[in-house]
UniProtKB/TrEMBL annotation:
Residue ranges constituting the FAD/NAD(P)-binding domain according to the UniProt record: 4-302
Species of the source: Candidatus Ghiorseimicrobium undicola
Keywords for the protein's UniProt record, in alphabetical order: FAD, Flavoprotein
Domain NADH-rubredoxin oxidoreductase C-terminal: 323-387
Molecular functions per Gene Ontology: oxidoreductase activity
Superkingdom, natural source: Bacteria
Cofactor(s) for this UniProt protein: FAD
Name this protein carries in UniProt: FAD-dependent oxidoreductase
UniProt similarity note: Belongs to the FAD-dependent oxidoreductase family.
Length: 420
């Protein structure tokens, strides 16, 4: 009997978690991991800390090469998977090498969105902010550039702005919409975040867009849609990410926003699984498949995919939007649905820079938003994830003293086998 061949495309949170889950169950199968980067697995969510100078490159690495050796993994770095052939059951690399598989996990993650229609976007000095190499290239330019412009007011853009400000740059954020972090917080929370950035010397230009990046080869300035020109030689594009699905375009693997998976992390093609930022799994708050591109979800999905490849048949309950970040000492947590036509309870203290909000649908908590004070955020996450009836504690949800002890009688023992 030949050795089973498991191929994992992607070497970040989901891919590494899949390796660990497989090796907990199976030491015989051959595991091959394909990555287009040159590094062992690193923590992508800490890139802004590296940019800020609070950690070095070694601090980003969370699985070194010894991990792959100890787990008998063939690690192919700097190898780009060009396409998947599900009929022949192999992965074709950019150099046309074919890697055969019996089972496949697609954990290719996502890439930064670059506005292709923006004139001058390919000039030197314009960067994405997704990888170690992106951060390294940005840092190299800060030695000669003193003004940095960030295009976009979402998490990626704000993390870049924070890191560059910590490096002593004069930072300007240019935002098309009327507020910061519009995809993950409401208007009130956004106003707290805006104030904190402004208080730390960052200029924020709302309701503004860049019409052209000016320069001959190297960028020298940005032209806004109102005609204003801002001189700078470094710009970071923070316009979100897109799942890396190009390599399956010639297959029958079903996609929507990302690769569609069932509760076992399976695609519609036998023996092909997907996990992490590339996949679209069930969202507990939305009630339909959504992409929730977050590190903890990628880890969990990768572990389920790895376990199920080994025959465990474990059901993944689903994910939901969840963001946790801190800027200049201001902590922000957004969980689940933060806006919409639902019952809400909220509390705001502008002087203390504290804001709390919970979103309720019937007798279920479906969202929570905290700025400044984030105590017990794990409790709210559990209430949402386990769909616990909160009607008996609704009036206590904004109480700082709420604790697990207060709701323990509401929590039922899980009947089904849940893999964590």
């Amino acid at each position: 009997m030949s050795t089973k061949k498991i191929v994992i495309i992607g070497n970040s949170a989901a891919g590494v978690a899949a390796i660990e889950a497989i090796r907990e169950r199976d030491n015989a199968s051959k595991i091959t991991v394909i990555s287009d980067e040159s590094y062992s697995a690193y923590c992508r969510c800490l890139i802004s800390n590296y940019l800020a100078g609070t950690i070095d490159e070694n601090g980003l690495i969370y699985r070194d090469k010894k991990f792959y050796a100890d787990n008998m993994v063939e690690l192919l770095l700097e190898k780009k998977a060009e396409k998947v052939d599900v009929k022949k059951k192999n992965v074709v690399l950019e150099d046309k090498t074919q890697i055969p598989y019996d089972s496949l996990i697609i954990a290719t993650g996502a890439s930064s969105k670059m506005p292709k229609d923006l004139k001058g976007v390919s000039k030197k000095g314009v960067f994405a902010f997704r990888t170690i190499n992106d951060a390294r290239d940005i840092l190299n330019l800060t030695t000669v550039s003193h003004t940095s412009c960030i295009l976009g007011g979402g998490l990626i853009g704000l993390k870049a702005a924070y890191g560059l400000k910590k490096r002593g740059q004069d930072v300007k954020i240019i935002v098309r919409s009327g507020r910061l972090m519009s995809q993950v917080v409401d208007n009130i929370a956004s106003s707290f975040i805006l104030k904190r950035f402004q208080d730390n010397g960052i200029e924020v230009l709302l309701n503004s867009d860049v019409s052209e990046i000016i320069g001959n080869g190297d960028m020298k300035a940005l032209k806004l849609d109102n005609g204003k020109v801002i001189g700078c030689s470094l710009a970071v594009i923070g316009k979100g990410v897109s799942p890396n699905v190009k390599l399956i375009k010639e297959t029958d693997i079903k996609t929507d926003k990302g690769i569609l998976v069932d509760e076992y992390m399976r695609t519609n093609i036998e023996n092909v699984y997907a996990a992490g930022d590339v996949c679209q799994a069930y969202d507990l708050t939305m009630g339909k498949p959504e992409i929730n591109a977050l590190w903890p979800h990628a880890v969990e999905q990768g572990r389920y995919a790895g376990a199920n490849i080994c025959g465990d048949n474990l059901k993944y309950a689903g994910s939901f939007g969840m963001n946790s970040v801190e800027f200049f000492g201001l902590a922000i947590i957004s969980i689940g649905i933060f806006d919409g036509d639902y019952e809400t309870l909220s509390y705001a203290d502008k002087d203390k820079e504290v804001y709390k909000k919970v979103v309720i649908d019937g007798d279920r908590l479906i969202g929570a938003l905290f700025v400044g004070s984030i105590a017990n955020s794990g409790l709210y996450t559990r209430l949402i994830k386990e769909r616990i009836n909160i009607s008996g504690i609704k009036d206590d949800l904004l109480d700082e003293n709420i604790s697990y002890a207060k709701i323990k009688n509401l929590v039922k023992e899980e009947k089904e086998k849940i893999y964590i």
